[in-house]
Each structure stands twice: as structure tokens, then as C-alpha cells.
Write a structure and sequence with these properties.
The protein has 713 residues and is mainly beta. It is built from five helices and 35 strands.
């Protein structure tokens, strides 16, 4: 090799190693369809919430305003169709993805179709959040950052430590603290007209500004204790604590000439809340021999959530006319015991059988005062609710030959729920049997092409809130009669679980340098669909009939769509191109709810399509990498029932990052999220016997910037 001139640094060829545990390789070798998101990809854009990370995946949407995350929906299917797991376990009661900083994650696994081991409560799919795992090498990492949204500033910091105790017990410890400040501005206009004469009945405009402040603490650890040859105990404790407060002011302006009396002119509200949760998971693993293994998991914990709110309403002279004081304390305790046995047969069959028990108890004390006097007392201020889930399953995964792999599973699950208060008790017990089949086919054993197919049964159980919810009163019409567009809300103890028969067909092509191109078609036929229906009822909390929204089993529905995805590098497509990493996906979604009249009789929350495009590049001669992504969810119309419809506006979120590797131990990450902020527009329409009621809401969003220092100590 010829020596290089002293004034020119040596030029090295790019060397890439794709390990068997890479996210693409894990996806390729899995019999059931699975997407793996590595910790590098999780932290790329410095997202403040896990839901913001997930929104870039094929077919995944979020329910909040742009840049704010929100409830996660696979294939646009909300309302509990997506199963969320934490380290392979169902998320504990009271837990939200918003409580989990992305810095604490090792990876995210997305399974498009259910499996017996992970559970069949996954009509749309399963998202498994895996916390930091103990590493083979020591590491000491610190991250600290500040961010801003509009005129509000936030800060966060996290520390991760990987080491060994007494040279034999590896552990990982992660600690995160954060303080966030946000501001929400809302504008809505309600317009009612007479259906027969088109004359004005009501024209109201409501404006409000809410400032929220929250601080939180999150700590978890993973300790792996060797007990002997082929035997280990893993301990995973977790503690989460946080508190926050909010202040809101609003106005309600009403045009003259309507037939409805203005209920109030302005409002002032204050709220506060605290949340604390402690949880521990014990996992014992024993390798009996080279072919057999036992796995036993015991986890349990509890949480406490206290919230208080005071709402005051004033007339045009700022005279106080009504107060609503609501105080709630909720305690939840949960334990789960899961056992699993696996055995590898000589004919390349991998058998797994398991038994699961899961118990949850919720105790809630609630006091609601209106003008200082209690309301809804007939339902009792103290309510307890419990659920007991029992499940057993068996599955067989085998390689039929070098081209075909198959999976067969059968799972039975029973859920019993019970609720009691002073004068109100309900119970519900349901069981479901779910067969599951998956297969993978490679036309050529050395080929990088493969086909996948799945035939499954899954279900969605009614939540405790849907079954036993204590009635809540419309804020706009707290007394007398209310309107169909502002109903009271209550639960329904007679709900059946939704059952779904599913089919998947996918094609995947894996590229030489770790990229892939895929297309996935899915279909679900759902029976006993649960949807909130509004009806005029005689109720115990009023001497006049009220409009009440309750969940109901309304009938059958179908959902289908196609998901296209490409993860490639430009130099894989064109010789001599820069190694720019491209990630793009497009999902076209559709659904039909049989009992609801056409058009637009879709599942709630499901858009007609969603798309993502992202690219990043690492400079060859400078320690800098940068990239960006755009997430687009077009607006769509939804027919909720024969008298209700909604319009959801287009959501566009653009993000960008720049990562400067100062040295081997120091990095600076600059992020811009929601680069082109736009208002989030929504419209709801209700028709009763005499009126057409339309409410339009406008929720502005803001640019979010962030700077984070990442140190390896």
C-alpha cells in the first residue's frame, strides 16, 4: 500500500456488517409477520413520546393534533383494536405510552397478525414495547435536552447504566426525569338550523386557552441473575411518578335571534392531578436439556391516580352562575402469572404451550358537586371494579422444508368483570376460542423473495370503562334537557366481545445491503361491533328525558387495506449514488359498518390512507448526519350512525434532525418537529327530528424544536 501524503487523511472504504440480530434479519426469519424498530431508529428524531415514533410505521396513525402523538391505531383502527404490550405483557391498568420516555426503549416489535403466545386481543395487530436490556459490555450514558413549542419550554434528562454485579450479574438501570409545558388553543362554532324551514335556531362560538404543566419521574432496571447451568432469574422493577396542573379560560358567544337561551358567557377552570405506579416483573428460565425449556413469569404492581377539577361559569356581567367541582381518586392493583414450556423436536418442530392468569382490581372514589351540592348520588361515590383473565394456548412452529415454514396455534381466553357500588352492581363473563395459522414461502431457498400468509381469529373485549362507566353529565347542558350533539355518557354492562376473522397476504423482497420492499394485504370481518350510540332516554339523574351516549353491539363490519413499504439506500438502486437511506410507506385503508347507512360508513378513526417519506444521510468527511420525514394523513368523512356524521381534517407532520458526533463519547442532536404547523380541523353533524346541528372545531398546532446532548461517560 502506497503511503498517503501527510496533508491528506487516508480514505477508507465503507464497511457494513449485517448481523443475524439486525431488525431486518429478525423480520425476515420470523414466520409470523413482524416489524422491528431498533433503538437507533427510535431515537433518530428525538421524539418526546413513543406514539410520535410509531406514527412513521406503515398503517399506523395517532389520534392527537399534529406533533402531539395521541392514541396509537394500527390500520387506522382505534378503540382498542391495537394490542399494546410492555416486555411481552399486557400494559398494566392506568399505564399510558405517554408515561414512557423513548430513551428507555431497546426496541419496538410490531406484529400485524395475532399469535397464540402474545394473545389474540389484536384485531388490528400488536405493538410490543421492549425496555432496555442488559448489555454484554459496560456502558454509562447520559442524555439531557431542552425543547420548545410555541411560547412554552420543556426539559428532560435520562441516565442509563450497564454493568455487572460481582462480575457475574449483568444489569441495566435507566432513570428519566422531565418537565413539560404546553398551551392549547381551541375554537369551535356550533350552528343549529330548523330542518324544515332552514331558520336559525342557535349560533354559538366557543374559544378557550389551556396551559398545562407536568413533571415526571421514571425509573426501571433489568437484572439477570444466573442460578446455575441453564437457569436464570431476571428481575425488572419499574417506578413511575408524575404530577401536573392546568388552567383554562374560555368564552361562549351566542348570536341573537336563536331559540336557545345562552347557558353561560365565560368559564374559568383549574385542574390538578398526580399519578404514581410501582411494578415488578420476575422471570425464571430453566433449560432442561438442549431441546426443552421452562419459562415462568410473575409480575404485579399498583397505581394511584388523584385528580381534581373546578369549573366556574359566569354570565355576561361576570356573575357566578354555576360551579362544578369534581374530585376522583383511583387505585388499581394488578398481578399476573404466566407459565410456558417449549420443546424442539428432531423433525424441526418447535412446540410451545402456556397458561396465563391476570387479575386487576380498581377502586374509585369520586365526588361531583354542582353549586356545592352532590349529583349522581344514586350511583354511589365509591365504585370497585375487577377483572380476572384466564388463558391457555398451544402453538407449533416448524420448517416444512427449506422453502416453507408454518405456524399453527390455538388459544382459549376467558374474561370476567365485576363492578359494585352502593346501589349499582354489574357483571360480565365472556370466553373466546381463537385458532391461528401463519405460513412463509420462499420460491427459491437462496432467494431474497418470500411470501407470507395468515388466517386468524382475534377479538376485542369491552373495557371496564365501557362496561361499568358511571354516568357523566354534559357540561353545556348540565340540567334540564340536553341536545343530541352534547349527550351525557354512560356504560353498558351487557356488551359482548367483538370477534374478527382475518386474512393476510404479503410479499417481501430483501435487498443486498439490508433494505427491503414489501406489500401487505389484510382483511378483517368483525361481528358484534361496539360503537357508542346516542339515544333519548328516561334517566334517574333528571326528571326530563336526556340524550345519552352508550356503547352498544351494533352489528357486523369489515376492514381491509394494502400496506406498501420500502427501506432502501440510493446506492442500491443506482451505481455511484450517495448512500442516502430512504424509508417510505403508503397504506390504503377501507372499512364498512353494515348497520350504518352509506356513504362513509367506516370504522371510527380510520382514514382512507396514510403515507410517510423519510431520508437520512451521514456525511463522508464530517461527523454529521441529518435527515427528515413527512407524515401525511388525508382528511376523511365518517358516518357514525343514521343521525351523526363527522369530518376529520388533513394532518401533515414534517420532522427533521441533525446529529453532530463531536467525538466518540459526545453527540449533539438538533430536532425540529411539526416543521409546518397547521390547524387541525374537525366537524361533527347531528340530525334529530327537527334540527340540523353542526359543530366545527379548530385546534392549532405549533413548531417544536429541541436540542439534546448525548454523552458516553
Amino acid at each position: 500500500m502506497l503511503p498517503q501524503p501527510r496533508n491528506e487523511p487516508p480514505q477508507l472504504n465503507r464497511v457494513e456488517v449485517t448481523g443475524k440480530d439486525s431488525d431486518v434479519e429478525q423480520r425476515r426469519t420470523s414466520t409470523a409477520s413482524r416489524i422491528v424498530i431498533s433503538k437507533e431508529e427510535i431515537g433518530r428524531y428525538g421524539d418526546s413520546s413513543v406514539s410520535e415514533v410509531l406514527k412513521r410505521l406503515p398503517g399506523v396513525t395517532t389520534g392527537g393534533r399534529p406533533g402531539r402523538g395521541g392514541d396509537v391505531r394500527m390500520r387506522g383502527m382505534g378503540g382498542g383494536y391495537t394490542q399494546i404490550l410492555l416486555n411481552g405483557e399486557r400494559m398494566p391498568p392506568g399505564f399510558s405510552l405517554d408515561n414512557l420516555p423513548p430513551d428507555q426503549l431497546e426496541r419496538i416489535e410490531v406484529m400485524r397478525a395475532p399469535t397464540a403466545e402474545f394473545g389474540a386481543r389484536a384485531v388490528a395487530g400488536t405493538i410490543n414495547i421492549v425496555l432496555k436490556e442488559a448489555l454484554k459490555k459496560t456502558a454509562n450514558e447520559l442524555r439531557a435536552g431542552i425543547s420548545g413549542e410555541g411560547d412554552q419550554a420543556s426539559a428532560n434528562a435520562s441516565w442509563t447504566r450497564n454493568n455487572k454485579i460481582a462480575e457475574t450479574i449483568p444489569y441495566t438501570f435507566t432513570l428519566s426525569v422531565n418537565r413539560s409545558n404546553t398551551r392549547d388553543d381551541n375554537l369551535s362554532r356550533t350552528l343549529w338550523t330548523d330542518s324544515a324551514t332552514d331558520t336559525l335556531v342557535l349560533d354559538q362560538t366557543a374559544t378557550s386557552t389551556t396551559r398545562n404543566q407536568r413533571q415526571g419521574f421514571n425509573a426501571n432496571a433489568r437484572i439477570q441473575i444466573p442460578l446455575g447451568a441453564g437457569e436464570s432469574l431476571t428481575v425488572v422493577p419499574m417506578v413511575i411518578a408524575g404530577n401536573g396542573n392546568s388552567h383554562s379560560s374560555g368564552r361562549l358567544d351566542q348570536a341573537p335571534g336563536g331559540a336557545i337561551t345562552q347557558p353561560y358567557a365565560s368559564t374559568a377552570s383549574e385542574g390538578s392531578g398526580t399519578f404514581a405506579m410501582a411494578r415488578a416483573n420476575l422471570q425464571w428460565q430453566k433449560r432442561i436439556n438442549d431441546a426443552s425449556r421452562l419459562d415462568l413469569r410473575l409480575n404485579g404492581g399498583g397505581s394511584r391516580n388523584i385528580s381534581q377539577s373546578l369549573r366556574r361559569e359566569f354570565d355576561t356581567n361576570r356573575t357566578l352562575i354555576r360551579t362544578t367541582d369534581d374530585s376522583t381518586e383511583t387505585r388499581e392493583n394488578n398481578w399476573a402469572l404466566n407459565g410456558k414450556a417449549s420443546h424442539q423436536l428432531e423433525n424441526d418442530h418447535s412446540l410451545v404451550a402456556g397458561l396465563e392468569f391476570d387479575s386487576s382490581v380498581r377502586r374509585q372514589g369520586r365526588t361531583t358537586l354542582q353549586n356545592g351540592l352532590p349529583i349522581l348520588t344514586e350511583f354511589g361515590d365509591d365504585v370497585s371494579a375487577s377483572s380476572l383473565r384466564t388463558a391457555t394456548y398451544v402453538q407449533d412452529e416448524w420448517n416444512i422444508n427449506k422453502q416453507v415454514a408454518a405456524y399453527a396455534g390455538l388459544r382459549w381466553e376467558s374474561i370476567a368483570t365485576q363492578s359494585d357500588s352502593a346501589t349499582y352492581a354489574v357483571g360480565n363473563t365472556r370466553s373466546v376460542l381463537t385458532p391461528l395459522l401463519h405460513a412463509t414461502y420462499k420460491p427459491d431457498e437462496k432467494s431474497r423473495n418470500q411470501w407470507r400468509t395468515s388466517l386468524t381469529r382475534s377479538y376485542k373485549a369491552a373495557s371496564l370503562q365501557e362496561l361499568v362507566a358511571r354516568p357523566s353529565i354534559s357540561q353545556r347542558f348540565p340540567t334540564g334537557t340536553n341536545e343530541v350533539s352534547s349527550p351525557d355518557r354512560a356504560g353498558n354492562p351487557n356488551l359482548n366481545p367483538e370477534l374478527a376473522s382475518g386474512f393476510e397476504l404479503a410479499y417481501e423482497h430483501y435487498l443486498n445491503k439490508g433494505g427491503l420492499i414489501s406489500a401487505n394485504f389484510f382483511y378483517r370481518r368483525i361481528s358484534d361491533l361496539i360503537r357508542s350510540a346516542v339515544a333519548l332516554e328516561s334517566v334517574s339523574w333528571s326528571d326530563q328525558k336526556r340524550w345519552v351516549s352508550r356503547p352498544q353491539n351494533v352489528g357486523n363490519a369489515t376492514a381491509q387495506g394494502i400496506e406498501l413499504e420500502a427501506k432502501v439506500r440510493l446506492d442500491e438502486l443506482w451505481d455511484g449514488a450517495l448512500p442516502v437511506a430512504l424509508r417510505t410507506n403508503l397504506s390504503v385503508l377501507d372499512s364498512t359498518v353494515d348497520p350504518v347507512p352509506r356513504p362513509n360508513n367506516r370504522l371510527e378513526g380510520q382514514p382512507k390512507s396514510t403515507a410517510n417519506f423519510g431520508a437520512d444521510y451521514k456525511l463522508r468527511n464530517l461527523p454529521i448526519s441529518f435527515g427528515g420525514s413527512v407524515n401525511v394523513t388525508p382528511g376523511y368523512d365518517l358516518q357514525v350512525s343514521d343521525i351523526q356524521s363527522t369530518r376529520t381534517g388533513t394532518k401533515v407532520v414534517a420532522d427533521a434532525f441533525v446529529l453532530w458526533s463531536v467525538d466518540r463519547e459526545t453527540q449533539l442532536r438538533f430536532t425540529l418537529n411539526n416543521l409546518a404547523p397547521r390547524d387541525y380541523l374537525n366537524t361533527s353533524t347531528a340530525l334529530n327530528a327537527t334540527q340540523r346541528q353542526v359543530t366545527e372545531s379548530n385546534n392549532p398546532s405549533h413548531l417544536n424544536w429541541g436540542v439534546r446532548l448525548e454523552l458516553k461517560l
